[in-house]
Amino acid sequence: MWALEGDLGSWDPIVRAVPFIIGLLLLATAALSIVRTMVIPRMSISIVYAIVLRLTDAAFFAVARMARTFPGRDRILAWSGPIGIIVALVVWLAIFLVGYALMIYGVTDGSFADSALQAGSGLLTLGLIGTPSGDVSAIDFLAAMTGPAVIALLIGFLPTLYTSYLSRESRVLLSTGLTGSPAWGPEALARVQLLEGDADLPTIYTDWIPWCAQVRLTQTLYPALNRFRSSVPDRNWLISLVAVLDSAAIRVAIRSEAPDPRTIAVLQQGSQTILSVSAAEVGIDSVVRLRPWKRRLEETVSAFGMTASRHASRDRSSHKLAGLPDGISQVAEAITLDNLQGQVSNMRALGVTFQAQPSTLPREEFDKALEYIRSAGVEIQRSADDAFEIFRQIRGRYEFAAYHLAQRFYVVRAPWTGARTPDTPVVYPTLAADEPAS
Question: Which among 285, 263, 264 is positioned nearest to 404, based on CA atoms?
């Protein structure tokens, strides 16, 4: 910019038009970013906000690695979400400041430093500069409207975020009595059985269905919510949801009768929630890295636990899973593909080319869980082999996306929630079935 400070003679008006145009483009970029982030109710993230999120995540993860324990890292990462919003506000205001400064510079004879001071005075309504005249007046008026408008939008945006956060966390807090802290699926089955028998489990699952829909909606619209952590290190919405889904998957796997529709519904809604949030996070990476759609497809299906299968059968009946209603596998596959809508160009080809992997949970872990819930009085009607095969197929629909999110946000490492980097020991809840009878 210093190259433009001198007198360029007859070229001066032409050269100064260039910064004016660049300033207009910067204003449009910042305005569209704000509107897409805080106004439009669509899962559409701007490149400016995506970059802010990724840089904020990277900065806090770098600092968190210095802590030696998970609670210490969790305390550091708890600042990531709120600070990310503040950083976004600063970045937006900075873009507006530079944009207005370039526009003022383009229509005046002064230096860029004077133009920046004039723009800052108007944008922040400080009144440091005297009354402008001519074309600068219009730009100054626009700047004076922009600053308060951006701050007002953010002030209105924060209550929306915290209302959604409190609604999400209240369900997580209420569930800790049954799922444990941190939450674990087999522990939920054991505690419900010890309290009142598992006949009421489908009723409990019913309460989770609208919660799943709300989390799916709010946390794909507002990715900042994914960075808002629970008030204590050993609680997390994702871990609680995985525990509920695991308990439902085990219940379906060990019982010989047809599953209760409410159990199937929570499995489908919960899986769709995890897949949707995972797809939104992959989308953020794609925006930042300017991924072509083929590379984006590879990253997304990888996070979803889907693998390429050149000889995949087009016969949908071949994917039917023994012991489950006829349509559950087809519906589960359709849900997975639904969450890829808009991210890949050919959904029909994807359904033939890619298939979901089964769960990678070790068999010995599953057998230990069966023994544990049996000790609590849970009836196991199927053989361990049949139960494990059904369980691993159901869990494969959400396991890989759950592991992806658990690592991305570095949440507490409850049992059956995948590895963490940096390495973190598994934390089990207090096992109710191990307590001596009174």
Answer: 285
Exposure on the CB side of residue 316, measured as CA atoms within 13 A: 11
Contact 2, 88 (CB under 8 A): no
The amino acid at residue 255 is: R
- How far is residue 49's CA from residue 33's CA, in Å, rounded to a whole number? 7
**Which of 434, 410, 298 has the alpha carbon at shortest distance from 62?**
410
> Do residues 68 and 405 lie in contact, with contact meaning Cβ atoms separated by under 8 Å?
no
Q: Which of residues 106 and 54 earns the better pLDDT score?
A: 54
Total-model pTM: 0.86
242-261 pLDDT, tens digit per residue, is 999 999 999 999 998 888 88
Partnered with residue 307 across adjacent β-strands are: 355
Q: Computed from CA positions of residues 178, 243, 234, 209, in that sequence, does the dihedral angle turn out positive or negative?
A: negative
Instruction: Average the pLDDT over each of 54-68, 298-312, 394-408, 421-435 and give the range with the smallest value.
Output: 298-312
